[in-house]
Amino acid sequence: MTENSMPELTLTPSAAAEEVPQLVLGGEPPAAAEPVKQEAEPVKLDDSMLTEAEKKMVDDFSKKIDVTNSQMVLEYGSAAQKSVASFSENALSSVRNKDLGEVGETLTSLVVEIKDFGEEEKKGLFGMFKKAGNKLEVMKAQYGKVEQSVDKIARELEQHQITLMKDIAMFDQMYELNLKYYKELTMYILAGKKRLAEIRSTELEELRKKAESSGKAEDAQAYNDLSQMCDRFEKKLHDLELTRMVSIQMGPQTRMLQNNDTLMVEKIQSSLVNTIPLWKSQMVLALGLENSRKATEAQSAVTQATNDLLKKNADMLKMGTIATAREAERSIIDIETLQHTNEQLISTLDEVLQIQRDGAQKRREAEQQLGKIEGELKAKLMELRG
Questions:
Q1: Distance (Å, rounded) from C-alpha 279 to C-alpha 323?
Q2: Is the whole-model pTM more than 0.70?
Q3: What angle do CA 117, 121, 125 make, to 5 degrees?
Q4: Is the Cβ–Cβ distance between 92 and 99 less than 8 Å?
Q5: What is the 3-state secondary structure (H, E, C) of the chain?
Q6: Could you give the CA distance from residue 184 to residue 82 in angstroms, rounded to a whole number?
Q7: Which of 165, 31, 46, 42 is nearest to 98 (CA)?
Q8: Cβ contact 48:189 at 8 Å
Q9: How far is 69 from 65, CA to CA, in rounded Å?
């Protein structure tokens, strides 16, 4: 941090006209993300990170701190705290308004368009034979349609890439602003701790000794009042330390967001300069191969159809010839037919003869019955005469 960008410390934040700088999209290409060193030991807050000018500023500022001024204690460091809060809200708004899922969906659409090229629906032998004749035309039409979709997706990816590049530059600005707020909070805390230590070792100690020696209630109350004011100011410094920790965490979080955008830019760049040109070159090659195979496939289809037709005609000729020969060798009247007719004739004669025999037998039986009836009638008449 240069001398011109050195933080400004103030005891009257409400009167300060400082505004949180607005993040600007655009700018120079981002620098590489700085690795965050993980410390194994607890970090002790001291002035080792400050320049000589900043150390002098802390010393001078600490002398102006009045812990007996309740309003000053309440507002101490609040300017830096508000800057961190506004900065966090700005960062959150930036992330919330950006939808990386849309970039992922666009890349997925590109994969689907390229993968679906050349997919054909199987519709049986006839459909395959019919499609074989105009497959090249179908591929050309499909290539033209897919190429339009791919070009549209490529334009969308280029727009996403531009937006992401601007966001990456914006995150660099956010990172620098966060460093500034972090430095300001550190200086407020160091100045406050230095002043607090001085008061406790001098003024507070003097009041304690005075209260002990005089035994007056007002002296004891003065000592107690200053002690409580020191405690309140110490709590304020603790709040500033919590805010400083938030600022510390914003550093790696900002770099993580920037790294995600960088990875997405690289993915888009790879698709634009590798995937799409490679797909187009492969499709041109496929069209060329299809064109060279078209005549061979057509001839193969004709040959197959001819062979199938010859086989079918040969089968039909065999069946027809055999049926004709069998019919020619048959007699006008089959022996089976004459046998059936003779059997039926003999059966008919037998049945007629049997019927005639049965009729003669019934007539003889009837004559006997008639004679018997006549005899019975005569006998009855003779009885009537007697």
A1: 62
A2: no
A3: 135
A4: no
A5: CCCCCCCCCCCCHHHCCCCCCCCCCCCCCCCCCCCCCCCCCCCCCCHHHCCHHHHHHHHHHHCCCCCCCHHHHHHCCHHHHHHHHHHHHHHHHHHHCCCHHHHHHHHHHHHHHHHHCCCCCCCHHHHHHHHHHHHHHHHHHHHHHHHHHHHHHHHHHHHHHHHHHHHHHHHHHHHHHHHHHHHHHHHHHHHHHHHHHHHHHCHHHHHHHHHHHHCCHHHHHHHHHHHHHHHHHHHHHHHHHHHHHHHHHHHHHHHHHHHHHHHHHHHHHHHHHHHHHHHHHHHHHHHHHHHHHHHHHHHHHHHHHHHHHHHHHHHHHHHHHHHHHHHHHCCCCCHHHHHHHHHHHHHHHHHHHHHHHHHHHHHHHHHHHHHHHHHHHHHHHHHHHC
A6: 12
A7: 165
A8: no
A9: 9
Q: Give residues with Cβ within 8 angstroms of 286, minimum separation 6.
A: 118, 139
pLDDT in tens, the chain (386 residues): 544 556 677 766 654 434 444 443 334 444 545 555 555 466 677 777 788 888 899 889 888 888 888 888 888 888 877 877 776 676 666 655 555 556 667 667 666 666 665 555 444 434 444 454 466 666 666 667 777 777 777 788 788 788 888 888 888 888 888 888 888 888 899 999 999 999 999 999 999 999 999 888 998 999 999 999 999 999 999 998 888 888 888 888 888 888 888 888 888 888 778 877 777 777 777 666 666 666 566 567 767 877 887 788 778 888 877 877 777 666 677 788 888 888 998 998 999 899 989 988 998 888 888 888 988 888 888 888 76
What 143-152 contacts at long range (C-beta under 8 Å, 24+ apart), as own/partner pairs, is: 143/117, 143/283, 143/287, 146/113, 146/114, 146/116, 146/117, 147/280, 147/283, 149/109, 149/113, 150/110, 150/113, 150/114, 150/276, 150/279, 150/280
What single letter denotes the amino acid at residue 145? K
